[in-house]
Amino acid sequence: MLVAMMTRASFYLPAPLLQRLQLISKRKQQSASDYLRTLLERDLSREEQSELNTQYDAWEKVKAIVIDPVPEASSIINTVLYAEKSVWQGSEEDRGKT
Asked: What residues contact residue 65 under an 8 Å CB cut-off, 6+ apart?
């Protein structure tokens, strides 16, 4: 089993919360630290997933805004920019100056 490097951290808890943590961890035959790590990991994972779901929902709304995307956009862009007498080519007057 691969164990992550542990770093000592200090947290302040209200006495009743600490007592509850100690009682439950004892019932589960775990150290309070192990039980607290389990709780934090589970809750942080839920929080991260919730944030991802929010982002996915936002992307779905963006997708719904895009109406009938143009599959041939690159060829349309090429025509507008590079075809004879295109915007990119400039006016006949501009072409005559070069």
From this structure: none
Q: What's the total number of domains in the chain?
A: 1
The answer to whether residue 13 is domain-embedded is no
Q: Which two tokens stand for residue 43?
A: 């809750």
Vertex 96: Cα angle to 95 and 98 (nearest 5): 75
Count Cβ neighbours within 10 Å for each residue of 28-59 and write b for 16 or more, e otherwise: eeeeeeebeeeeeeeeeeeeeeeeeeeeeeee
Q: How far apart are CA 38 and CA 22, in angstroms?
A: 14
H runs (alpha helix) in the chain = 15-27, 32-65, 73-82, 92-97
Please write the tens of the pLDDT for every residue from 66-97: 766 666 777 777 777 777 666 666 666 665 66
Range of the domain at 53: 18-67
Within-domain flag for 9? no
Using DSSP's 3-state secondary structure scheme, residue 16 falls into helix
Structure token pair of residue 2 = 């691969």
